[in-house]
Amino acid sequence: MTQPLTHFTFGRREFVAFIAAMMAVNALGVDLMLPALPAIGAELHAATANSRQWIITAYMFGFGIGQLVYGPLADRYGRRPILLATLIGFVGASIFAASSATFTALICARILQGLMSASTRVLAVAIVRDRFSGRQMAKTLSIAQMIFFLVPILAPSLGQILLAFGPWRFIFYALAAFAAFVLAWAAMRLSETLAIERRTAISLTSLRNAYRLTLTNRYSIGYATAASLTFGGIIAFVSLAQQIFGEQFGAGDRFTMLFAVCAFAMGCASFANSRLVERLGTRLISQAGVFALIALSLVHLAVIASGLETLWSFIAIQALSMTCIGLCGSNFGAMAMEPVGHIAGTASSVQGFITSVGAVVVGSLIGQAYDGSTFPLAIGYLGIGLGALVIVYLVEGRFWFQREAALR
Predict the structure, then answer these.
(1) CA pair distance 161, 163, nearest whole angstrom
(2) In the Cβ-directed half-sphere of 288, how many Cα atoms lie within 13 Å?
(3) How many CB atoms lie within 10 A of CB 222?
(4) Does 236 score more than 60 pLDDT?
(5) What per-residue confidence (pLDDT) applies to 295?
(6) Cα 326 to chain centroid, rounded
(7) 178 vs 349 pLDDT, higher one
């Protein structure tokens, strides 16, 4: 473990809590305004209901692009100064969003928010990788994500509460306040985890070598791409949730509760993964999640085709599907990072870019196909599962159960 380079240092519990808080900046940036999407669209004159989805996808686009920058900077200057600078930027971008007078201005502000919050994803993974590797890394990320997944459960309800006290702009001021809290926590307590002797100068040669290693290692590129598919499923659901619950099923008044059920399922999956990953391994758990997602998608399509789709059938299948995605995400990320841990900052940037931008493409394709039914989401999830299955096979050459059979 790298020795801390500043006076303050985290204990294990505070370390996990802080990593979760870093992740929560991004989660709140996505989920807090979900109840306000109709109001934002109406006041800023969004062209169509589907246009409101760009409030989410624009943020995620900026989030993906920004990750290419922060890895090399973090490998050169350390994790702490980059985190402090970008949190300040996020506070400013949130205030910009709150003051937007047009839909175009808001979209620009959302891209800027995403660009700033991208550091939290890169640096969370890099900081954890500085201290842990392999199954310990997967376990730590799973525990942090378990706490982090409480945010999507609570965020829409918090957004609804904020709307009860004022206009949708209050939501962006709340984002600024939370980012300022994390900024203060980091300034007072975060130790630098990257020792000076491990820092690398920024040069075209070093970047080219790091990018080449990250993009040519089949585990790195393969599992980052698989993660982009499953993350795309999350973006698709988040973008569509308000429309599906409110417009298709007429349950807009219960949106926050219904959304929380699905988010809670992902939290349970991360908790289970943190308990089981050291004993069962990342490959068994993630591959089981992929096969289960495919099976659930086929069941969902059968329910839709038979005309039996109801609010409660959708909730049940969607919650189980989110559980499967939760079992894949942190494990795919840990396996992608494992062979490139010595360039964790840059590798995390490249992998994060692939995962986030790929997810935006996948999520947007599914979201913009919304036609007033759950069919686009169901067929999209089937495609995600099949795509991830093919990638896993190409990376590993066989599935986990085939390897176990060969060992016997």
Answers:
(1) 5
(2) 16
(3) 19
(4) yes
(5) 97
(6) 10
(7) 178
CA 266 – CA 233 distance, rounded (Å): 12
Rounded mean pLDDT of 164-177? 94
Q: Taking residues 134-150, what's their average pLDDT?
A: 66
For residues 39 and 224, give the distance between their C-alpha atoms in angstroms, rounded to a whole number: 36
Tokens matching residue 334: 């840990």
Within 10 Å of residue 11's Cβ, how many Cβ atoms? 8
**pLDDT value of position 211:** 85
Q: What is the DSSP letter of 44?
A: T
Cβ contact 230:332 at 8 Å: yes
Residues 6+ apart with CB under 8 A from 302: none
Place of tokens 């989410």: 56
Alpha carbon distance 84, 182 (integer Å):
9
Average pLDDT, the chain: 86
The secondary structure element, H or E, covering residue 200 is none
Q: What is the mean pLDDT of residues 61-68?
A: 88
Residue 310: how many other CB atoms lie within 10 Å: 10
Dihedral Cα 233, 234, 239, 241, nearest 10 deg: 100
d(CA 50, CA 71): 34
Query: What mean pLDDT do residues 11-22 have?
Result: 83
Tell me 248's DSSP state: I
pTM of the model: 0.77
Which whole number is the average pLDDT over 45-73? 87
With b meaning 16 or more CB within 10 Å and e meaning fewer, what string describes 388-399?
bbebbeebbeeb
Kindly tell me the number of DSSP H helices and DSSP E strands found in the chain: 16, 0
